[in-house]
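call fold(seq) -> tokens
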Amino acid sequence: MNIAYWIIATLLAVFYLYAGGKKATQSQEQLQPMMGWVDTVPMPLVRLIGVLELLGAAGLILPPLTGIASWLAIAAAIGLVLIQVGGIAVHVSRGEARQIGLNIALLAAAAATAWLGTTWL
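ret:
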């Protein structure tokens, strides 16, 4: 179980470092081709989502790696689940129900990470 946690958590962390970094630093025009929803969401909210994704990525890796407050990894995974629930809601509200496959996969991976995280606490 520990190996499974590290594999899934590392993959999620890499994804969220990339996606969160883009949302936290790039302009709306730069994000538009990859994330069409940014035209309907205020940029401060896009930036907040990016920062939360970056914190979630750090939370998946750093607490279990250092052994300090390991429960934060579970909290980070649950936070990433909630971000994907919000992402699904945005896509559905925009009539983009066909584009939620990645959101569902990320939600499932984050939920699995939260569950796997409970095995070493």
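The longest helix spans residues 2-25.
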